[in-house]
Design the sequence.
């Protein structure tokens, strides 16, 4: 079903009504106008995508309607209809801004073909606008992680992506929920269509309905032209509602109606427009608890929570830190070769990462600014990574000795958490088993407890 809004303009009632009825049955949202004046009044709302306009009408020509629409800044596409075709008429219509013209009597299949062509053009324009504001990561810009929690997450993404199921992604801030949403879209049947992200917490409450569903010209103070809305921009593609838990209750009701009816009604419009869009939502809040508190609608929660993906915090898959570090060094290293020295890597592995992957990326970006000679050292890391020591200890031991003690603590704690299984501890730390044994021998010689 198409979401195009079509206006049929013709002073002959029989032609106008038959064509409008046929297009309505074909799935288009159709309005009618019996004159040029009536058409301009309807077009002024700014939400008409295509106008099928007769060239000869009593009050003004169809070409004059096109000219006035263009003068008003309207971007409606015009298909002109005439029983008096001539080369000069066609040229004049095109110069005025018409998309094309058709000869009466019209053949239904020809009309549908032309509307399909216009829909393709409008879709490409929408995708180009979306691409200018968002670049969805290419395959080479993704980091594949090997920890069991992330491999399980990857399997869930692969299962749900080819379906049209609504997905709810949950997890702490900075865990990469937006990356997961893009990956679902990339692997879906909608991959060639728009991916439109929306930060629900960043849009003022007074504007969020207009941003999501669009508005007509004059719908409210400051609406000097029509706005399509992000749901219609995402038609046939995916809309990603990030921080969906921040939506105010009145907006939750309207979102629920869109999910149930698969139609959106722009602010100021009396017509609901069908929309074919997959919804992926994300939140770092406990929506079930919010439902119990009465701050999130239970019916909307069930609509969104068809398939839930929980993204683990980085502290629960520390073994992926080295791969993430390599990924960010490639992304932000400006083509140069960079590496971490062992002491710096040990400190990154031991950190709890309350800001998760986003915090790690910020740390690497900062370190790249400070580092020299292609090596990131402890000195290039933020202050919170240097465990404070007593003045006596600082004077008694070198930096390397202090870092080795810190590293020993990390490794011994990993062995303890793995229940004494050194192979499992090595896997979690992202190092080889032989490396683990070698380091344990070093710690024993140095007198560290094991």
Sequence:
């Amino acid at each position: 079903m198409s979401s195009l809004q079509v206006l049929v303009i013709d002073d002959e009632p029989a032609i106008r009504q038959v064509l409008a009825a046929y297009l309505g049955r074909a799935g288009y949202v159709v309005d009618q106008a019996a004159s040029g004046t009536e058409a301009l009044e309807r077009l002024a709302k700014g939400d008409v995508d295509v106008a099928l306009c007769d060239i000869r009408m009593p009050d003004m020509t169809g070409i004059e309607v096109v000219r006035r629409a263009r003068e008003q800044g309207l971007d409606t596409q015009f298909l002109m209809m005439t029983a008096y075709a001539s080369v000069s008429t066609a040229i004049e219509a095109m110069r005025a801004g018409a998309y094309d013209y058709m000869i009466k009597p019209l053949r239904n299949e020809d009309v549908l073909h032309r509307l399909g062509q216009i829909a393709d053009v409008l879709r490409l324009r929408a995708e180009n606008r979306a691409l200018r504001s968002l670049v969805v990561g290419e395959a080479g810009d993704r980091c594949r992680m090997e920890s069991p929690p992330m491999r399980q997450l990857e399997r869930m993404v692969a299962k749900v992506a080819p379906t049209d199921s609504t997905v709810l992604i949950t997890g702490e801030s900075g865990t990469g929920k937006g990356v997961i949403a893009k990956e679902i879209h990339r692997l879906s049947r909608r991959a060639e269509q728009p991916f439109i992200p929306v930060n629900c917490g960043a849009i003022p409450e007074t504007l969020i309905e207009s941003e999501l569903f669009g508005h007509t010209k004059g719908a409210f103070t400051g609406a000097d032209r029509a706005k399509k809305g992000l749901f219609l921009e995402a038609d046939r593609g995916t809309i990603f509602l990030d921080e969906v838990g921040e939506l105010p209750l009145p907006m939750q009701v309207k979102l629920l109606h869109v999910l149930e009816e698969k139609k959106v009604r722009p602010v100021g419009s009396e017509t609901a427009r069908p929309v074919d869009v997959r919804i992926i939502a994300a939140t770092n809040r406990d929506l079930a608890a919010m439902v119990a508190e009465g701050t999130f609608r239970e019916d909307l929660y069930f609509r969104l929570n068809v398939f839930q993906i929980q993204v683990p915090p980085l502290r629960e898959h520390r073994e992926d830190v080295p791969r993430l570090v390599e990924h960010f060094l490639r992304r932000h290293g400006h083509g140069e070769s960079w590496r971490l020295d062992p002491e710096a890597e040990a400190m990154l592995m031991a950190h709890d990462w309350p800001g998760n992957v986003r915090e790690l990326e910020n740390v690497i970006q900062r370190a790249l600014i400070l580092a020299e000679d292609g090596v990131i050292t402890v000195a290039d890391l933020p202050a919170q990574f240097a465990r404070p020591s007593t003045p006596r200890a600082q004077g008694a031991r070198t930096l390397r000795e202090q870092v080795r003690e810190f590293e020993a603590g990390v490794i011994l704690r990993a062995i303890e958490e793995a229940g004494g299984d050194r192979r499992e501890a090595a896997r979690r730390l992202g190092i080889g088993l032989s490396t683990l044994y070698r380091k344990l021998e070093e710690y024993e010689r140095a007198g560290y407890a094991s």
